[in-house]
Specification:
Layout (H helix, E strand, L loop, with lengths): L2 H18 L15 H10 L1 H18 L5 E5 L5 E5 L5 H7 L9 H4 L3 H8 L3 E4 L12 E8 L5 E9 L9 H24 L3 E4 L10 E4 L5 E4 L1 H7 L12 H6 L4 H17 L4 H8 L3 H10 L5
Antiparallel strand pairs: 1-2, 1-5, 3-4, 4-5, 6-7, 7-8
Helix pairs in contact: 3-7, 10-11, 11-12
Length: about 300
């Protein structure tokens, strides 16, 4: 995230805190924490997300632990679902409410990494006095959106610290680690849901979402990640009304569709070890049509 984008994001958040939420920055405020029955109910609804995220959170914590960061996963409403921290940080985590069940939505907590990330749906870093509330101005937080298998916002991946001082030199590396973690969680959710389909990529992504599409044997789109939907102008949710992808690509001249078709054919050929006839059957086109596509796209060896 660029410095200009970060400043705009935080200034917009401060404006909401002042105008929309009418929050007093000097008011002492304790973060709401759900009861155990409430947390079990919320966790039950997000069990698949939590299970997919835990191994990635453990890996991320090993990377950021030397800088005294705690790793947290929150749902779309700002409720912390899972936390990974070192034992020596437990008392501080309780004091600052870095714990499962704590609610970090922007409307009540003011400008903070989790809540503002969810409100803006983009990566956010909030350092010390960039927080709206004075009582949070010893905190440092960074968060990125996490998306589910049908392109919807599933929550936020966060690293926060109550002791970190100057993290700016390491900020690009920390943000890259966060983005990578969120992409891996999304990819795990996507492969779990569409593992029986052919999964292709539409290109690289530097966001917290990978550009993946799942196709059935007839070339129809069964699923797509958030990044792919934005790239192809597809809606969130289930994709039941889209035509088969390859005929659609034939009728378009946009460069993005050409790249998508190239990726589809590459994946099909790789699946059948370069056998054009088998790849044509897999894609639901004739052998002659596939040969023409290969020549037109410059894929001939």
């Amino acid at each position: 995230m660029s410095t200009t984008t970060s400043r705009t994001c935080l200034s917009d958040s401060w404006a909401r805190c002042s105008t929309n939420y009418n929050l007093d920055p000097s008011e002492r405020w304790e973060t709401q924490v759900l009861s155990q029955p409430e947390l079990r109910f919320v966790s039950g609804r997000t069990q698949r997300l939590i299970q997919s995220a835990i191994p990635e959170m453990q890996h991320l914590h090993r990377l950021v632990d030397p800088l005294d960061f705690t790793v947290m996963l929150a749902d779309p409403t700002g409720i912390v679902l899972s936390r990974h921290t070192q034992r020596s940080q437990l008392s501080g985590c309780r004091r600052w409410r870095f714990q499962a069940g704590a609610v970090w939505d922007e409307q009540n907590a003011g400008t903070n990494a989790i809540g503002t990330c969810l409100r803006e749906e983009r990566p956010v870093m909030v350092v010390h006095d960039q927080h709206w509330r004075l009582c949070f101005r010893k905190l440092t937080g960074m968060a990125v959106p996490v998306y589910n298998s049908i392109g919807e916002l599933a929550g936020a991946m966060d690293i926060s610290s109550f002791t970190a001082e100057n993290v700016l030199p390491a900020a690009p590396l920390l943000m890259d680690a966060l983005l990578t973690t969120a992409r891996r969680v999304e990819e795990k959710l996507f492969h779990d849901r569409f593992g029986q389909d052919m999964i292709v990529t539409l290109g690289p992504s530097t966001s917290s979402s990978s550009m993946l599409v799942a196709l059935d044997r007839d070339g129809h789109v069964r699923g797509a990640t958030h990044a792919s939907r934005r790239h192809m102008n597809w809606p969130e949710g289930e994709l039941s009304n889209l035509p088969a992808l390859l005929p659609l690509l034939d009728a378009q001249e946009e460069p993005s569709f050409r790249r998508a078709e190239t990726q589809v054919i590459h994946s099909a050929l790789a699946t059948v070890h370069g056998n054009v006839s088998a790849a044509a059957r897999l894609l639901g086109v004739s052998r002659a049509t596939l040969h023409r596509k290969i020549r037109a796209l410059g894929l001939e060896r």
